[in-house]
Amino acid sequence: MKRLTSLMALLAGGCMTAPAPPPTIAPPAATGPFADLPIASIAPVPENWWHLYDDPVLDRLVQASLAANADLRVAYANLDGARAALRQARAARLPQTTIESAATVDGSASQPSASSNVPTTDYDLALTASWDADLFGRLRSGASAAAADAGAQAAALDGLRVAIAADTVLAYVELCGATQALQVVSEQVRVQERSVAAVSSQLRAGEVSPLEVSQVTNLFETTRATIAPYEALQTNARYRLTTLQGRPPADARTNLRTAEQYSTTVAAG
Questions:
Q1: C-alpha span between 14 and 137 (Å, rounded)
Q2: CA-CA to 49 of 20 to 30 Å: which in 134, 220, 222, 243?
Q3: In which element (H, E) is residue 263 found?
Q4: DSSP per residue over 95-122, as a string?
Q5: Where is the signal peptide (predicted)?
Q6: What pTM, to 2 d.p., does this model score?
């Protein structure tokens, strides 16, 4: 009886399914009063969220960056592999069928009652069906693990796609902003250059003092010194966009002329 009781306990323990994963509990820092603010309940962002800028140039740049990124292609391949493993794990829980067929041609030597010129053919067809009862929950746990892996790969793909699009949008906005700022500063430099010429002319006529000429010249040089940082920011944005598109760095000097046109349109509007 003791052996029978031990055997029954062992079988009962073996039939138990795998334990469910523990529930996810949000930390106290994530459930503060800020969670009730209106900004925390905004509508879901659309998949192609950069279309909200309504700029065809930006749309082309983002699509080019997404198409040229090798890491994104690897993420798509990983997601396809994870989904294939999920389909395989789910299919393992279904009945498995096997169909076998065979055809055999018997000669007249093995058929004494048949004519010597008429061979006989035998056709065999067999259908086998099997199903795993999954008493121990192995297949169910494997399917759950495959589903979690597919979800993780999909999340990694979405995160990478968002990062690429965000980097492209940020570089493009910085390019447009630097271009617009350069236009404004260049106009200020031209105006102040005329002011320096006018004050210098007044100095020669004895109408102003050298101090006033020095002040105007100092303002002119200070304004002109701000051109270099904007040019560096513009060049940096060009190289970033070119790199995101998988193009050689030399193309940064010749392409993206539409960014200047876009900035000019924004300034005119």
A1: 10
A2: 243
A3: helix 257-268
A4: PEEEEEEEEEEE-GGG-TTS-TT--EEE
A5: 1-20
A6: 0.64
